[in-house]
Task: inverse folding
């Protein structure tokens, strides 16, 4: 995880992934989240890692 202060906080999480299919495929992704100072957090990007 990394973070940076701007007009809120940016977070980046390394996540293990698994597809929701008959034959699941495992992988990894970086999920970016932005949390404004006075609002709820929201996902801004999901990047798969090959």
Result:
């Amino acid at each position: 995880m990394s973070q940076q202060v701007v007009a809120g906080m940016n977070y980046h999480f390394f996540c293990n992934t698994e597809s929701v299919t008959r034959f699941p495929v495992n992988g990894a992704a970086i999920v970016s989240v932005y949390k404004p100072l006075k609002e709820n957090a929201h996902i801004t990007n999901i990047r798969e890692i090959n």
Summary: The two ends are 19 Å apart (CA to CA). Strands lie at 2-5, 8-18, 26-36, 42-49. DSSP finds no helices and four strands in the chain.
